[in-house]
Amino acid sequence: MADTNALLKTVVQVLNDGDKGFSDIGEHLQSPELKTFFLQEAQKRGQFARELQAAAGISEDVGGTAVAPIHRAWGDLKAKLGGGDHTLLETAEQGEDAAKKAYKEALEDSGLDSDVRSLLTRQQVHVLASHDKVKGYRDSLAS
Fold it and tell me: CA 79, CA 62: separation in Å to the nearest integer?
């Protein structure tokens, strides 16, 4: 059970990272369409984290991952150096890759409660669609 709990905490951490990361990136994006999508997605990640914590019985504040603040700072620096929306979208896609991995690993755990598995599966569908949308936006801005 400890491994299952650790996997679920990792998903919550990655969701918390996504909440902060989407919000930070959304504030820097020039495109109003992208800004709206990112700010909405930040709220969705926060909602997912709270839902998963409740379903999994995780009562403590697990925060985010240790590498996320470094990743966000690197993205901010690249944007300030003139990278623009494309650079920010590359940074976001890297974060989305971490979310995809966390969900995949959690869902591979045979010890998952069926209700938690169902919630993770539903959330994963959204995360995968969001990843593809971010990638599509990034590709459309490639120079």
Answer: 29
Name residue 9's amino acid.
Answer: K
CB atoms within 10 A of CB 46: 17
2-140 CATH fold: Ferritin (1.20.1260)
Per-residue pLDDT tens digits for 81-140: 666 788 888 888 888 999 999 999 999 999 999 999 999 999 999 999 999 999 999 999
Is-contact 102 143, C-beta < 8 A? no
**Its pTM surpasses 0.85:** yes
Spatial distance between the Cα atoms of 134 and 38, rounded to a whole number of angstroms? 9
As a whole number of angstroms, the longest Cα–Cα distance in the chain is: 48
CA distances from 129 to 28, 93, 98, 124 (A): 22, 12, 14, 8
Q: Is 83 left (phi over 0), alpha (psi -120 to 50) or beta?
A: alpha
The answer to whether 59 and 47 are in contact (CB under 8 A) is: no
Of 10, 31, 7, 37, nearest to 129 (Cα)? 37
